[in-house]
Design a protein that fits this description.
This protein folds into three domains: 114 residues, Gyrase A, domain 2 (2-Layer Sandwich); 129 residues, Four Helix Bundle (Hemerythrin (Met), subunit A) (Up-down Bundle), CATH 1.20.120.430; 134 residues, Rossmann fold. The longest helix has 25 residues. The strands form two sheets. A six-stranded mixed sheet has the order 3-4-5-2-1-6, with helices on one face. A five-stranded mixed sheet has the order 8-9-7-10-11, sandwiched between helices. A hairpin with a 2-residue loop joins β8 and β9. By secondary structure, it is an alpha/beta fold. It starts with a strand and ends in a 7-residue tail after the last helix.
Length: 424
């Protein structure tokens, strides 16, 4: 029998409300000890909470029966007033009762995984939803949390099991009423499946950028107005500006929400040949970050140290002084900034147009492992021993099972749950 655990499920500090969650076999006993009879399941009931004859608070109490809660266990939630002293008094009473202990980071969600309420991808989706800063991240995390990855994997797994069953039938029941030549059906199953897995694996990079955010580097010669433009885009003095060339030596980062996408703007050192070792290091860092950036804004003449790519933007600087042909901006007055933001948004939107539902490098690696096993089977159909094909199909199934957390994920779990707060 597992321990009963408790924790504050809302953020610490002063607020209108706070929620303390208790999960485990003694949840009902905890509720009875603090506020009398356990309320009917899923009925919010106003109760007086007290411990050892001392009133703690008047609270809404909600009870969830085993099998009908977030963790899959019996759960009681105390919706108390949000003063820090109230929450501390209730947590102290829970600890003194001896019926439950303080939860560890992510332990509620870990129990949801262990009890089959969530699969591993849904756990990751929940973590992403909690961390979501933008609308695109919220929508993506919600799709994962809803179980779309698990549904897709279940479909793929069923088709792999069917193909494996056909092949194993030729091994075990070759002399009975089983089609001897299962090659056409197996090939049709696997070719279609391989195409779907390959497409999903190729789309992980775009989806991962939505999750982690994009980088947009502002490049140009010294005194092109890069720092002034960054400050205008950020809406604050994030970078030092000066008429002295080479003021920016390191890469300055500003995080922003651009039309629902998480974007980090990079102000870089002016690109030029320099004898100053400190400036040369800044230029080296600027070039390295520019090479890794998703979009580069070339402000003013291109000094030639970084070659433009498709999707990059060439922008005339200092539009307040006359600018130039095409897109021109002024960080000083804000002229052209809205048009520039619209172009950045369009370029990034093009990059995520093909994003799939798999969102992590771990997902991509699992898909590629499964696809590699399927390719081996297809290459050997009708030629290699059926035992080899059956084993490769089992390997593909294990890769998909690992993706949703059914096997081989013990080391991964510690890393994932460490990112959760104590009350989740």
């Amino acid at each position: 029998m597992s321990d009963t655990i408790h924790a504050l499920a809302t953020a610490r500090g002063r607020a209108g409300l706070a929620v303390v969650r208790v999960s485990g076999p003694q949840a009902g006993a905890v509720c009875a000890a603090l506020c009398g009879l356990v309320p009917p399941a899923r009925h919010a009931t106003l109760r007086n909470i007290s411990w050892r004859g001392e009133a703690i608070d008047q609270s809404l109490v909600v009870f969830f029966a085993e099998g009908a809660s977030f963790t899959g266990e019996a759960v009681v939630e105390f919706h108390i007033h949000g003063g820090p002293a109230v929450a501390q008094a209730l947590l102290r009473a829970l600890a003194e009762s001896g019926l439950s202990r303080l939860a560890q980071a992510g332990e509620f969600t870990r129990r949801a995984l262990d009890n089959g309420v969530l699969d591993l991808t849904q756990v990751e989706g929940l973590a992403d939803l909690i961390d979501a800063e933008t609308e695109a991240q919220r929508k993506q995390a919600l799709r994962v949390l809803s179980g779309q990855i698990g549904d897709r994997v279940s479909n793929w797994r069923a088709r792999l099991v069917r193909a494996a069953a056909l092949i194993e039938a030729t091994i075990d029941f070759a002399d009975e009423d089983v089609p001897v030549d299962v090659t056409p059906e197996v090939r049709a199953l696997l070719v279609g499946l391989l195409g779907e897995i390959d497409r999903e694996a190729a789309a992980v990079a775009q989806a991962e950028r939505i999750r982690d955010g994009f980088e947009v580097a502002i490049l140009g010669e010294p005194n092109a107005g890069k720092s002034t433009l960054l400050n205008r885009l950020a809406g604050r003095e994030a970078a030092i500006t000066s008429e002295i060339a080479g003021t920016t030596r390191d890469v300055i980062e500003v995080r922003m929400d651009l039309d629902g996408l998480a974007v980090t703007l990079l102000d870089t050192a002016g690109l030029r040949d320099s004898d100053d070792p400190v400036e040369r290091e800044g230029i080296r860092r600027a070039v390295n970050r520019a090479e890794a950036a998703d979009v580069r804004i070339f402000l003013g003449p291109n000094p030639g140290l970084v070659a433009p790519r498709d999707g990059d933007l060439v922008v005339a600087a200092k539009a307040d002084l006359g600018g130039g042909a095409g897109l021109a901006v002024s960080g000083k007055t804000g002229a052209g900034v809205d048009a520039l933001l619209a172009e950045i948004s369009r370029s990034l939107s093009d990059k995520v147009a093909g994003a799939g539902i798999m969102v992590r490098e771990r997902h991509r690696l699992a898909l590629e492992q499964g696809a590699a096993a399927i390719r081996i089977v297809l290459a050997g159909l009708g030629k290699a021993l059926p035992e080899i094909a059956a084993e490769e199909l089992r390997r593909a199934i294990r890769a998909l099972d690992a993706l949703v957390g059914r096997v081989d994920v013990d080391e991964l779990l510690g890393e994932i749950f460490a990112s959760f707060c104590i009350g989740k």
